[in-house]
Amino acid sequence: MSLKSSADAYGKRQNAGEVKLRMLPPSQLGSVIFGCTNNTINECLSKNLFGLPNRHMVYVQNIRKGMPLFLFNYSDKKLLGIYEAISDGKKNIDTTAWTSHRTGKTTYPAQVSTCIRHQCNPLPENLFKRAIKDNYYT
């Protein structure tokens, strides 16, 4: 499955700031690109854990052990990888990850445990943006 197809799970932008999520079954989900910022990347990498907001659980739950994963840093616009899921996608694998000081709960409960499959140089967005253009927003 192409990188474009694997990113389809993110859905299409509807109105400003609103994204309609696609509910791809595991058989159509080739990989997933998770997001981070300079503020969250260290926790992603040190805990070997990627997470997204709860509404993304509709497809994160379809991540299976062994699936390739990528991490996009919204701060510097670079794609990191290649990572591998070492767990199925689940809710609240680590309830202390990315904890909100206001609520004391994780802000990214749709989670998957990861490991490095192949350490590649970070890819700047101009080299991959066309491959995922239908599902790319910054």
TrEMBL record:
Protein name in UniProt: DCD domain-containing protein
Taxonomic path: Eukaryota, Viridiplantae, Streptophyta, Embryophyta, Tracheophyta
GO biological process, one term: response to endoplasmic reticulum stress
Domain DCD per the UniProt entry, residue ranges: 27-138
Database matches in Pfam families: Dev_Cell_Death
SMART domains per record: DCD
Top-level division of the source organism's lineage: Eukaryota
